[in-house]
Specification:
119 residues; mainly beta; seven-stranded mixed sheet; four-stranded antiparallel sheet; 0% helix; 55% strand; globular
């Protein structure tokens, strides 16, 4: 079955960096459009970044543009989210998501990883 396993969340000081990973299995990863979402306490889950199956196009939420970079390694079935210049408002649970595999619309989620930005 489809599995998405996030890792890399931690407590970090403002201005610091983290790299999140999402290891995928159970589907044709190199045909999948992948995304990162985040959900802060009491707020809705919001799209952070997305990447095409070949990794040739990414898009980002305005709040993270210039600070976050999403990438993927299709040989390892893994997507990454490099987060730099972290701010307290980046504190959230970060989720990996797959919405499209080839021409098929799907909706699979990982369990999430906690990122806390605080001094």
């Amino acid at each position: 079955q489809v599995q998405l396993v996030e890792s890399g969340g931690a407590l970090v000081q403002p201005g610091g960096s983290l790299r999140l990973s999402c290891a995928a299995s159970g589907f044709t990863f190199n045909s999948a459009t992948m995304s990162w979402y985040r959900q802060a306490p009491g707020k809705e889950r919001d799209l952070v970044a997305a990447i095409t199956s070949a990794g040739d196009y990414t898009n980002y939420a305005d709040s993270v543009k210039g600070r976050f970079t999403m990438s993927r390694d299709n040989a390892k079935n893994t997507v990454y989210l490099q987060m730099n210049s972290l701010k307290p408002e980046d504190t959230a649970v970060y989720f990996c998501n797959v919405r499209r595999i080839g021409l098929h619309v799907v909706n699979y989620w990982g369990q999430g990883t906690q990122v806390t930005v605080s001094s």
